[in-house]
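job 3f2a | input accepted
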Amino acid sequence: MDDLPRLAAFLAAHDGVITTAEARRLGLGPNDLRRLVSDQLLRRVGRGAYAEPSQDRTIEATRAVIALSRARPDVAASHQSAALRWGFPVLASALPRIHLTRTSGTAATRSHATFTIHAFPGRPDAFGLVGRLPVVTPALAAVGTALEAGVDAGVCVADAALRADLASRQEMLGWVEAMRRTPHLSRARHVVAQASPTAESAAESRARIRLLALGLRVVPQVVLREQHGAFVARVDFLLPDLGVVVEVDGALKYAGAEGRAALVEEKRREDGIRRLGYGVARLVWSDLDDLARIRAVVELAARTVTRAPERVAVTVEAHQRRTGATWDGLLLHSCADVVPRA
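job 3f2a | predicted structure (342 res):
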């Protein structure tokens, strides 16, 4: 096909996406688009919307959102699809279906094969822009993700929105209260209550809500120091009643020279934590689906603790003074967006 170089250049400059109208300007008609789909050079994601295929599920979902938004000027990305556009972490389980919301009118929600177009939320302040395309606000994206994709997915998005200072808990609660007759609203209310700006990754978000589900008191992002004040580590979580530090390993790899250096540094860091008398529990992504496994890992670490409870309490009190954190149920909750490393 003679137009392939021009198509490739267009896709490279336009997020891997092309609409029927844009294809027409490149001299590509309906038969050309069907052939490109047949040859797996394009993927049809909806009427008038095409995207370059990808093996990466997040990239593929993002392209589908952009393609549908460009093909339909009367909608905005919403729910977890808006979270993708804002750059928040979206769990793989929440990616397959695309969600859009009408920016005006009274039409009802309508589901299609691979995407849903939701009714206008009734307020013009529901929308913003990412690039030149409309999206619902981060607060509404977090609430919508909770409604459509569940607590885990909702907390990951809500945490990221708080941490980036793109939404507040009050904004999220405002949207929850505005949706009084919406199904699964208790789920969204729970997500807003559980959200925290301290999480630095989706793995930390999920680990925190698992630890709280086990009834453990949790202090996130604690700086540990030697008795004379020297910095030792900033840890993901401290369980003050047990004297256990919980670390969550994400996608860190230890391959190659840089990986070996990272492994040595992590071992040095963990040794320093243990010298202070804390037990160390390490969790990986696959552990986060198994509460019994998490409990077992934490209990094993608790058996290695040598630090006196009063010294743990001093560490927590120092953290509270430093961050302004207060106990929110089982969570020592800080509204500080960033807790310094040292």
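job 3f2a | The longest strand covers residues 231-239.
job 3f2a | closed
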